[in-house]
Write a structure and sequence with these properties.
Largest sheet: 3 strands, mixed
Number of strands: 5
Number of helices: 5
Radius of gyration: 14 Å
Shape: globular
Strand content: 15-25%
Strand order of the largest sheet: 3-4-5
Order of helices and strands: HEHHEHEHEE
Helix content: 40-55%
Length: 111
C-alpha cells in the first residue's frame, strides 16, 4: 500500500481536471499501514504514508482486509478510490466505483 513515493507534478490541477475532492482514509487502511510499518521491506514507506495522511479525515469501514472494507463501502455507497493496485482497481470497477490513479505524472480517472 502506497500513496506516493515521488512528487506528483499535476496534483495542484486536480480540482480543475476533476472537481473538488476530499481525501478520506479508512481507519482499516491506517491499521494496515501501522502493521506494515514493522515490515523490513515496507516499513519506511508505510511510516511515510502514515505521516502524509495524518491530517486527512478518516472513516470507519469494516472488512477482513482494507481492500475488502473499501470494496464493501463502494458497493454500498458508490464513490471514487485513489489506488494504483491493479487488482483492486478492477474489483472497484466491478462493483460500480470509479478509480483515481496516477500514471506518468498524469491524473487518470477510470469508471
Amino acid at each position: 500500500m502506497l500513496l506516493v513515493s515521488n512528487r506528483i507534478k499535476n496534483m495542484n490541477d486536480i480540482d480543475v481536471e476533476i472537481g473538488h475532492l476530499e481525501f478520506i482514509v479508512p481507519e482499516i487502511v491506517i491499521e494496515e499501514l501501522k502493521h506494515l510499518s514493522n515490515d523490513e521491506s515496507k516499513g519506511k514507506v508505510a511510516l511515510q504514508t502514515l505521516e502524509l495522511i495524518k491530517s486527512y479525515e478518516t472513516n470507519s469501514i469494516s472488512g477482513k482486509t482494507a481492500d475488502d472494507g473499501i470494496l464493501n463501502f463502494v458497493k454500498e455507497n458508490g464513490g471514487m478510490v485513489a489506488t494504483i493496485d491493479k487488482e483492486l482497481k478492477s474489483k472497484i470497477k466491478e462493483v460500480g466505483g470509479s478509480v483515481l490513479s496516477i500514471h506518468n505524472d498524469k491524473i487518470v480517472l477510470e469508471n
